[in-house]
Amino acid sequence: MHLTHRLPLASGLLGLTLMTGSLLIPAIASAEDFFEMKDGELIRPTGYREWVFIGTPLTPNDMNNGKATFPEFHAVYLDPESWDQWKETGEFRDGAIIVKELISVGSKAAASGAGYFMGDYIGLEASIKSSEYFPDEPGNWAYFSFTTPDHKTLTETNAAFPAAACNACHDAVAADDFVFTQYYPVLRAGKGAGEAAGGGTLSNLDGGE
Q: What angle do CA 166, 51, 15 make, to 5 degrees?
């Protein structure tokens, strides 16, 4: 999938500030600033590597009779405003966007031993929760791919997949609001955790640290 968009800075703030005496007050990015729709299609977002990294699931062909549905690594990012709400309320905000970079399995051996190690970037995908753009979709979630057949380039825009192509599985299996949070320890540990969601504040590993 490809994403292009007028993304905020890594901090989740626009590069605009208001001056009040000697105090600089950053202007908070609004929800729609993390993605842009045009003529019913999502413009490929940019800047998502500056967002909150939530995990890297992998279902390799080697463990799925050579026919894994998603045989590549998925490097997954959540926009910072949605992360802020998730750690405070344990819910995904209206306007949330999750981006997945698809990365091939590269070497299966390293100095540390045998395993699965990341290879090359081969695609890009995104999911968006928006009651404005997808009022009739389950949970208001829509799913996009910017990956081209040759896995060498990305499309500039793309329309959402038909709901039946993605939502049935998400609805049946996903732990939280159509999102597979059970496979993302960052989201599990951060759900409604407030300050502790940032990591390093707890000594109990069962508590997410």
A: 130
User: Which of 50, 42, 30 has the alpha carbon at shortest distance from 4?
Assistant: 42
Asked if residues 146 and 3 have their Cβ atoms less than 8 Å apart, the reply is yes
What does the pLDDT look like over 90-139, one tens digit per residue? 999 999 999 999 999 999 999 999 999 999 999 999 999 999 999 999 99
48/41 Cα distance (integer angstroms): 18
Runs of H (alpha helix) within the chain: 80-89, 163-173, 185-190
Bridge partners, 105 (sequence order):
118
Give the torsion sign (CA, 77, 84, 14, 129). positive
The structure tokens listed for 139 are 């949970």
Q: What is the model's pTM?
A: 0.83
